[in-house]
Amino acid sequence: MMVAIDCAEDIELASELQNYLKKHQYDAKIEGSSVMLNALDVEKVLESFLKESSRTEYSIRKIDSANLLLSKEVPIEDFGFLRCEMCGYVLSSEEELLVHRRAHGIQLL
Ligand SMILES: [Zn+2]
């Protein structure tokens, strides 16, 4: 089936992905910043592409069965948020984080 891989406005990434796909005998074409691919194992192919092009900061998000989004994971810390290292809970201040940590039974010095 035809799957659209949205490269989140990254034309360079889209064309690099298209080249990679063509090299691996896939029929891929570009529409805007999306790569249209007709394949069964799209996610597996994308994982290989990210690995081989050392794009470890990228992730594949499945929007629905015909749409995937390829984008950089934006760390929440970039928006001034903090994350509890025990459970991943997101808080907006150091104070809140200290209070939250007590819920895990950590004794603060
Ligand atoms: Zn926590």
Please supply descriptive tags for the structure shown above.
single chain, 109 residues, alpha+beta, Gyrase A, domain 2, 2 domains, 5-stranded mixed sheet, two-stranded antiparallel ribbon, 3 helices, elongated, binds zinc ion
Walk me through this protein's architecture.
With 109 residues, the protein is α+β, with helices and mostly antiparallel strands. The protein folds into two domains: 2-72, 2-Layer Sandwich (Gyrase A, domain 2); 75-109. It is built from three helices and seven strands; from the N terminus they run E-H-E-E-H-E-E-E-E-H. It has helices spanning 11-23, 42-52, 94-102; strands at 2-6, 28-31, 34-38, 58-64, 67-72, 82-83, 90-91. It has a five-stranded mixed sheet with strand order 2-3-1-5-4, with helices on one face. A hairpin with a 2-residue loop joins strand 4 and strand 5. The chain is elongated and about 55 Å long. Bound molecules: zinc ion. Residues 84, 86-87, 89, 100, 104 line the site of zinc ion (ZN).
